[in-house]
Amino acid sequence: VPPLLKRFSVLALCVLVAWYAHSPLLGAGFLGSDAAVLDDIDRAYQEGGATAPWSVDAVDHRPLAATALGISRSLHARGGIYTPGDAGRVRLDSLLMHVVAAFGVRSVVIRSMRPWTGDDHARSAGAAAGAFLMVHPLLVPVVAHLPSRGDVVGLAASAWSVAFLLRGRQSRNAIELGVAFVLAVVAAASSP
Known about the structure:
Blueprint: H1 3-27, H2 34-47, H3 63-76, H4 86-117, H5 119-135, H6 140-144, H7 149-171, H8 174-190
């Protein structure tokens, strides 16, 4: 089997399993406190102006969590009004951030294991870690719960922060270390 086909097959399998794990949530309407969170985001962005991300109680005054939900609001709400179908699209935004986090974890594992195990084993371990993060059952509610958007953004930012830190340290590149620092600040502003 050609290596590219093998990689594509593994990636397709991971996507299908992740879709199976998350698909019931994408078809569900707003659950629990989702509507209250979206109302709070809407009210803050209509009244707050530049200070809106800091004034959202529903996400514990985490500015980047509120900003991420505000971006989803501008993409999916028509005139500030959500339809039941918008719930799946808003959750899909969280799922995409979750995929970004999984690729970050993959990169971290590859970078950290490559010096000791070699390239092939490091890639295999990285793919397994990223796939495990995508399909782990404890992370499905985090993706589904809108007040947890900051946690998903923080997970992605912290994973990529460590990836850039390892890459910058191994290649002695100050720019990548700076990117790692900025991503660490983003993670801190997203999740407690």
